[in-house]
Design a protein that fits this description.
- The complex is a heterodimer of chains A (about 400) and B (about 160).
- With about 400 residues, chain A is α/β, with parallel strands linked by helices.
- Chain A has two domains: about 10-45 and about 285-390, Aspartate Aminotransferase, domain 1, CATH 3.90.1150; about 45-285, Aspartate Aminotransferase, domain 2 (3-Layer(aba) Sandwich).
- Helices cover about 40% and strands about 10% of the residues of chain A.
- Chain A has helices at about 10, 20-25, 45-55, 70-85, 100-110, 130-135, 155-160, 185-195, 250-265, 270-285, 285-310, 335-345, 370-390; strands at about 35, 95, 115-120, 140-145, 165-170, 200-205, 230-235, 245-250, 320, 345, 350, 360-365.
- A seven-stranded mixed sheet of chain A has the order 2-8-7-6-5-3-4, with helices on both faces.
- With about 160 residues, chain B is an alpha+beta fold.
- Chain B folds into two domains: about 1-40; about 55-140, Lrp/AsnC effector binding domain/regulation of amino acid metabolism (RAM) domain (Alpha-Beta Plaits).
- In chain B, α2 (about 15-25) crosses α3.
- The two termini of chain B are about 35 Å apart.
- Classes of the chains: A alpha/beta (about 400), B alpha+beta (about 160).
- The interface of A and B includes residues 26, 27, 298, 301 and 304 of A.
- The complex binds pyridoxal-5'-phosphate.
- The site of pyridoxal-5'-phosphate (PLP) has 13 residues of chain A, from α5.
Chain lengths: ~400, ~160
């Protein structure tokens, strides 16, 4: 008898990633300038890499405790206290994970029963809705729009939040829009949540890449700590995507439940990465600031060039993405991106990869050298002129 | 703003005032004015390319040596006069006064070992107030003033990621 390799409905019904489709297109081509990359172009700062190497030389190659090295959890607790005024107990309220990706997966699996609704504001990181679905929950898409600066507001959420959603996935600074929030805006959201049972999964992985003012952590707002699962990691701010280290901080019962899943499915996050992450928190701050300053300059460059060529966009407040409107070209996102790739060899990501309301926009990552960005902007300018000229 | 402009130009001297203005959120006129002032004040001396001398010198058959020079300081002028006598030779590419076991450190360039040897024997060593020299021929340079002198590897990241 042939083996039964039937794939579950859960998986077959999952929509394919819009990024993946575009990735396949790009892979077939040479000499492409890619502004489609969702990770830093910097290598991990040397002091961090060297610490990882040293830990291997010392033979630190076994599992760590399920929750992660205590040393790292203590460093995380110190970071959260010093940078954001948050108090988390490293023994019971912090879990080290395989990136924010795993932390998010654990959180929805720990919190959602079949059919539980989770509000997912879009455009957003591609994993949110599929992860909620995989966990048995029902993602409720909340569309934001350019008219309101792609910002989440109480008025946008009020009606839905009242309708018994279990959770909300919040992400700021935002991939793909670059939007972040000031304290007053977050307080307005917090006021709304206080009257509900809503749990907030706050993905703050770009917190250190905030260019306007200081990042305000969601659980630092009055009354929000007990309803927030705070997610953060090392991938973006420390340019450590490949090390796969992130963490969750939150109420101890939820962290305990997440740890229960984690100990069966993962055991412990990568050991070398955990040692490197300790060094990142202890001595990596100047490296972060240096990278941030560089991103900030590129942001200014790209923002000015895009607006000058009539691809209007707001100045991103954080992360390393900018989300210009391409409506003036008359093309849809996918056509724009595909033609730009084929005709000028510049890869961007169609806005629709981040939700239906991303139609009419593209995501440009400025995690690329100034020379690359300059050249790419020249090409995009040439392309849009040609398209508008009707050829 | 001035400090940031200097840092940007130090990294890439071809960055235009307009680009710097966009990077810093200033007006291009302000940036251009600040750059002119830096030039006038002698903070920015000139704009030049950073060359991997290793790659070039090998191709052009030139050699470099680091030369330690012990000198006798002179009344009232200290090391300045002897330093000047030395650094005015065009083959001296750089010249610094150091603390420690010797006084001046020179980088000297020549066509071959012989030519540098001759410079030391005929010009440097016999100079009044020069007590002694030690010549180290440069074999390989790994990093220069913050720039690692190996070809940058290609971008290893996947072309499109979430
Ligand atoms: C908003 C957001 N959350 C989470 C992740 C995943 O990060 P990690 O590498 O920590 O899994 C990304 C990466 O692109 C992201 O942009």
């Amino acid at each position: 008898m042939k083996p039964n390799l039937k794939i579950t409905r859960r998986v077959t019904e999952m929509p394919p990633s819009g990024i993946r489709a575009f990735f396949d297109l790009v892979m077939g081509m040479e000499d492409v300038i890619s502004l489609g990359v969702g990770e830093p172009d910097f290598d991990t700062p040397w002091r961090i890499r060297e610490t990882g190497i040293y830990s291997i030389e010392q033979g630190c190659t076994s599992y760590t405790s399920n929750k992660g090295l205590l040393e790292l959890r203590v460093a995380i607790a110190d970071f959260l206290r010093q940078r954001h005024g948050l108090r988390y107990d490293p023994e019971e309220e912090i879990l080290v994970t395989v990136g924010v990706s795993e932390a998010l997966d654990l959180a929805v699996r720990a919190l959602l029963d079949r059919g539980d609704r989770v509000l997912v504001p879009q455009p957003c990181f591609v994993s949110y809705a599929p992860m909620v679905s995989l966990a048995g929950g029902e993602p409720i898409i909340v569309e934001t729009d350019e008219r309101h600066g792609f910002r989440l507001s109480p008025s946008l959420l009020r009606a839905r939040a009242a309708r018994s959603a279990r959770g909300l996935i919040l992400n700021y600074p935002c991939n793909p829009t670059g939007v972040s929030y000031v304290k007053a805006e977050l307080e307005a959201l917090a006021r709304l949540f206080r009257g509900t049972g809503l749990v907030v999964l706050s993905d703050e992985i770009y917190d250190e890449l905030t260019y306007e003012g200081e990042h305000v952590a969601f659980p630092s707002l009055p009354g929000m700590r007990e309803r927030t699962i705070y997610l953060n990691g090392f991938s973006k701010s420390f340019a450590m995507t490949g090390w796969r280290i992130g963490y969750a901080a939150g109420p101890r019962d939820v962290i305990a439940a997440m740890t229960k899943i984690h100990q069966y499915s993962i055991m412990s996050a990568p050991t070398t990465g955990q040692f490197a992450a300790c060094e990142a928190l202890r001595r990596g701050r100047s490296d972060v600031l240096e990278m941030k300053r560089e991103y900030a300059r590129r942001r200014g460059l790209v923002h000015a060039r895009l607006n000058a060529m009539g691809l209007s966009c707001a100045r991103p407040e954080g992360a390393f993405y900018i989300f210009p409107s391409i409506r003036s070209t008359g093309l849809d996102s996918m056509t724009f991106s595909r033609r730009l790739l084929e005709e000028e060899k510049v890869a961007v990501v169609p806005g629709t990869a981040f939700g239906r309301c991303g139609e009419g926009y593209i995501r440009i990552s400025y995690a690329s050298s100034a020379e690359n960005l300059r050249e790419a902007m020249d090409r995009i300018g040439r392309f849009t002129e040609r398209v508008r000229g009707g050829t | 703003m001035t400090e940031e402009i200097v840092e940007i130009l130090r990294r890439d001297a071809r960055t235009t005032p307009e680009e710097i203005a966009a990077m810093l959120g200033r007006s291009a006129a302000d940036v251009a004015r600040a750059i002119r002032k830096l030039e006038r004040d002698g903070v920015i001396l000139r704009y030049r390319a950073v060359i991997n001398e290793e790659a070039l010198a090998a191709a052009a058959g030139r050699v470099r040596a680091l030369i330690e020079v012990r000198t006798t300081p002179q009344k009232n002028v200290g090391f300045d006069r002897i330093a000047e006598r030395i650094y005015r030779f065009p083959e001296v590419k750089s010249c610094s006064l150091l603390s420690g076991g010797y006084d001046l450190l020179l980088v000297v360039e020549g066509r071959d070992l012989q030519q540098i040897g001759n410079f030391v024997a005929e010009k440097l060593a016999p100079m009044e107030n020069v007590q002694g020299t030690v010549t180290h021929f440069l074999l390989k340079k790994y990093k220069e003033d913050g720039d690692i002198l190996v070809r940058r590897p290609r971008d290893r990241r996947l072309a499109v990621t979430p």
